[in-house]
Write a structure and sequence with these properties.
Layout: E1 2-3, E2 10-17, E3 23-29, E4 44-52, E5 60-66, E6 72-80, E7 96-100, E8 106-113, E9 120-122, E10 127-135, E11 147-149, E12 152-153, E13 158-160, E14 167-176, E15 185-186, E16 190-191, E17 201-208, E18 216-217, E19 228-229, E20 237-242
Parallel strand pairs: 1-3, 2-4, 3-5, 4-6, 5-7, 6-8, 7-9, 8-10, 9-13, 10-14, 13-16, 14-17, 15-18
Antiparallel strand pairs: 11-12, 17-20, 18-19
Length: 243
């Protein structure tokens, strides 16, 4: 589904279920690089959900791409299935849950789970996220198969692009549980430009969900905040303010 560069669009109460043939994007709001919107009559997505696998084998490179400026995201759940039908690292493939390219986009409640690369990629300036819940993928078959870059274990759950000059995030959490019987690490749960204004992000946490597994998240944000691993399961590791 695509939404044109028009003001005042409201999408509510929708579920996008990926099909067996890979979709590049399940929902695209606005055209790339257009940066068009009416701040007094913005596009609203409310209670919009995405499912990759679970009901059947499904594939989609990205679930939601927001190109429009000033868009409002109110309760977005994007899920690469961790159980159900058609579930597996090579079966229900999906790179990223949400990509935000528009400026001044506000999200109230992002729930993005189990994608195979960045869960959320935020490229627009002036963005705000109020509450983010994430579980990293359960099923990387090896550390080699899940590397953001050479020497960088795993993928951050929430990545703010290095070109972004202003972003605010409040109450954001990322959890790990790797169930393939191998040790898997993510270097960071959150990665943001170090040049953001002080206290741009507030109340971040990670947690390791299983007492019997191994691996985990080594840092909350940008190498800061300590690790949540098999050494401290079920224990929140927090960063109150960053930078």
């Amino acid at each position: 589904m695509t939404v044109a560069d028009v003001p005042g669009v409201k999408l509510a109460g929708l579920l996008f279920d990926a099909g067996t043939v890979n979709s590049p994007v399940l929902l695209q709001v606005g055209t790339p690089n257009a940066h068009k919107s009416d701040p007094n009559d913005p596009t609203l997505l409310s209670d919009v959900f995405f499912r990759i696998g679970g009901a059947e084998t499904g594939r989609a490179t990205t679930s939601l791409v927001v190109n429009a400026d000033n868009a409002i995201l109110d309760d977005i759940w994007a899920w690469r299935a961790d159980h159900g039908t058609g579930v597996g690292w090579e079966s229900n493939t999906a790179d990223t849950g949400v990509i935000v390219n528009g400026d001044n986009v506000t999200a109230y409640g992002l729930f993005v789970e189990h994608y195979q690369k960045y869960e959320v990629m935020w490229n627009g300036n002036g963005g705000t996220d109020i509450f983010f819940q994430n579980e990293m993928p359960y099923d990387p078959p090896s550390q080699t198969d899940w590397m953001e870059a050479p020497g960088v274990d795993g993928w951050a759950a929430f990545k703010v692009a290095n070109t972004v000059t202003s972003f605010n995030g409040y109450g954001m959490g990322s959890y790990s549980f790797f169930n393939q019987g191998v040790t898997i690490y993510a270097a960071n749960a959150f990665e943001v430009p170090v040049t953001l204004q002080p206290a741009s992000l507030s109340d971040l946490l990670t947690i390791f969900l299983n007492t019997s597994a191994s691996g985990g998240i080594l840092n909350v944000i940008n190498g800061k905040g300590g690790s949540s691993t098999g050494a401290n399961p079920d224990t929140p590791v927090t960063v109150v303010s960053y930078p």
